Amino acid sequence: MRVFLFFVLILCFSCNSIETYPEGKNLYIKHCSGCHGQNGEGLQALIPPLAKADMFLAAGPYAACWITKGLEGKILVNGIEFENAMPAIKDLSAIEIANILNYTLNSWGNKHRFIGPDEITSITKNCP
Q1: Per-domain residue ranges for the chain?
Q2: pLDDT digits (tens, 9 = 90+) for 40-62
Q3: CATH of domain 19-125
């Protein structure tokens, strides 16, 4: 019985260390972390954070348009104004964009519902 409980405890602790959205993390590191930081912290007054960022969390799946079209002009994130342009990443599939958004919207203290690739496809067809 003790051996069984030992294995149950090991299983429970190992479940807590399972990484969420590993594909999204890899894509984030490749395409986004150079500006937004390894932990979504941004770059002081130059690049906005993604971690606990009110504008990003409010946009949710609509941030797909920022990924595919880029973002220019003044934006306000957590009460701080940013004006550096974000370049578009045009060669990502809907699945890759969904993976990036699911990872970033559920990391560093962020919490968001699951976003599927069909939703990304629908949103990106109507980006301004």
Answers
A1: 19-125
A2: 999 999 999 999 999 999 999 99
A3: 1.10.760.10
